[in-house]
Amino acid sequence: MADELGKLERLRQSGALSNAEFEAAKRRVLEPGAPAEDNTIGRAANRYVSFQMIVGVIGLIVFLVFLFTVFLPMMNRTTDLIPPSGPGINRAPVTFP
User: Fold this and answer.
1) What distance in Å separates the CA atoms of residue 27 and residue 21, rounded to the nearest whole number?
2) Which residues of 1-97 form beta strands (DSSP E)?
3) pLDDT in tens, 27-83
4) How far apart, in whole angstroms, are the C-alpha atoms of residue 64 and residue 53?
5) Residue 55 sits in which domain range?
6) What stretches of 34-87 adopt beta strand conformation (E)?
7) In a domain, 89, yes or no
8) Considering the domain boundaries, does residue 95 fall inside one?
9) Number of domains composing the chain
10) What residues contact 22, with CB distance under 8 A and at least 6 apart?
11) In the structure, what pLDDT confidence band is assigned to residue 85 with cuts at 50, 70 and 90?
12) Is position 92 within any domain?
């Protein structure tokens, strides 16, 4: 038990553990039946990954809305402005009065 407390103290002094994490870990070592706190690093990482997934989906939706409402209609307008050319397309001569 003393070795574990010493390790925890060294981790706290090195900055790897915050004071709250150190106190929670010390309580778990000293009182094995004590309930573990819900604010662990693993749960924080899971929340962060969930946040990234949600933001990614929202970003994809915004991109698709932009693509279909702005970009693709604009592409159709620019191709309408280009006169057809190529073999087999006969243009009538332009005459000016």
Assistant:
1) 10
2) none
3) 888 877 655 555 677 777 888 888 999 999 999 999 999 999 988 887 766 655 666
4) 17
5) 2-80
6) none
7) no
8) no
9) 1
10) 8, 9, 11, 12
11) low
12) no
